[in-house]
Amino acid sequence: MAAIPVPNYGVHCRGQNDRLTYKGRPGRNWSRGESGRSIASAQYTPSAQSLSLATNCPIVGHIGNSRRGRTVSAVSFFRAFPSILVIMFAASLASNGLADGDELGSNNLDPIAIEKVDRLFEKWDKPNTPGAVLAILRDGKIIYSRGYGMANLEEAVPNTSATVFHLGSVSKQFTAFAIQLLANDGKLSLDDDFRKYIPEAPEFEEPITIRLLLHHTSGLRDQWNLLALAGWRLSDVITNGDVRRILMQQKELNFTPGSEMLYSNSGYSVLAEVVRRVSGMPLGQLAKERIFTPLEMNDTRFQAHYGNIIKDRAYSYAPTGNGAYRYVALSYSTYGPSSVFSTVGDLARWDENFYTAKVGGPSVVRAMQEKGKLNDGKELDYASGLVIGEYRGAKTVSHSGADAGYRANIVRFADYHFTVIVLANAGNLDGWHPAEDRRHLPRRQARACGGRSGCVPANRQN
Q1: Which of 104, 148, 291, 376 is the most exposed place for a label (fewest CB within 10 A)?
Q2: Crossing angle of helices 172-184/361-368, nearest 10°?
Q3: pTM for the full model?
Q4: Domain ends where: 252, 279, 306?
Q5: What's the domain count of the chain?
Q6: Contact call for residues 426 and 149 (beta carbons, < 8 A)
């Protein structure tokens, strides 16, 4: 099997004490690791910034569809980021300002808790670095928000609560919400074969329902892997039409629909097209009319073309070494799996809708959080663009995202009416794992992968 050129990232074999690292450079094939172990193939998912490698490295489990050697778990370079949010939750609950039943406001958050939170971002809280914007929500109100670092290094524009960020795969929940709205309207059923709306799609042995697309259990091959194999570069301007054409050429699936979970951006590109054909309007327009405008999310939009002007946007940066950064262009023009731009303030309004159900009503909000199931009845942690989990017994509803140098994460502790939002434009804002979180990480990952240990869900970027 020929090796596939991939960007310059390192990965380690999961389950190995020596954390064996393979390194590659752009334009060169992955061929041999530092220990001399050979790699048969590699696949890179740019939206998730994750790699899937076929190698003889012993592993705990697998993700992907390799038929030669074993497959190293997809490595998500953003998976440490949720741990930052966990620390915020713990620090905030420990403060007097977050005691149960307190009247909360921006001045009620304990100064010690604020200091702990700000310390997490001190590496990026400089005039010569990109950074992030944080918002901590309680009972529907932002009780603390702050920007760190710069939104635009060339113009010395700082990150603030009004800065607009690309959300990466956090966008999936808006695509899913549009689908659930149409289902609630009676215009489609989640159990419809998607070919009912896209009849030119290939006919596979087993039907792929809209529900399977929502839960990443369709078996569709990921669009970014397919585009890379077809010779596309990440710097190319890739449109939804380009993605649709390459998906329509596929004659096989990764697995029987419903038999496994494998994170696939392709499914959400298909869902965006289903929305367009069922509603008669592009996904971005439907989202604006039925989600963003009713919730007064005035700075939120799907970006249909990479060149569209977005006021107050943060630009995307990646580290180059020695503390320097370079601009990283996000040139593709696709939407559905990604490409929502928003602010922490707008996302606070979105978060509150999961309590008030102002848009969609209780039935849609409930449907958004219904976990997927495999054909054998095994329940997943993935719902409709949302991951349903827990931390120390507290229910969490979350999703992360990563595109170019953008990073995003929303974690909702539903039982506490408490949410943490972090939006970033620094590609190295990855956080760290507290010891407690590391111990439980494999168990949570296995649940999100339908019980397969060793699998790192690609939505955990990210």
Answers
A1: 376
A2: 130
A3: 0.76
A4: 279
A5: 3
A6: yes
